[in-house]
Amino acid sequence: MPGQIHALVEVGLIEIISGCLRKYPKDNEIIKACVETLENILDVGADLFKTDENQENPYILKIVESGTLPIIEGLQTHPDNDIYTISLRIIEKNFEYE
Q1: 7, burial (CB in 10 Å: exposed 0-12, middle 13-18, buried 19+)
Q2: Which portions of the chain are predicted below pLDDT 50?
Q3: pTM tops 0.70
Q4: What is the CA radius of gyration of the chain?
């Protein structure tokens, strides 16, 4: 399964998810599915690339480059507790802030 996720990311899955988050900002079901998928992608990326200590999870960079990070950050104030919790977990596990 990690290989399949890697292949999907390589053909633009993160960009598609980002587009869905932009197009459907009020649809809680779509938002929740998107952030759950992003969390799973980042977890797979962490597992795939942890064997090389110098290799950072490249999916983090794809999220930043696609403009998805500000959307995830904005979801930390979402009224739906599940969406809030998942977005917070994504930020805390994958992005360093001082």
Answers
A1: exposed
A2: 98
A3: yes
A4: 13
Structure tokens belonging to residue 69: 């990070």
Domains, the chain: 2-94 (1.25.10.10)
Asked if residues 22 and 71 have their Cβ atoms less than 8 Å apart, the reply is: yes
Residue 92: its H or E element = helix 81-94
Amino acid at 67: G
Measure the CA–CA gap between 4 and 57, rounded to whole angstroms: 16
* Contact (Cβ atoms closer than 8 angstroms) between residue 20 and residue 30: yes
DSSP-based three-state secondary structure for 97? coil
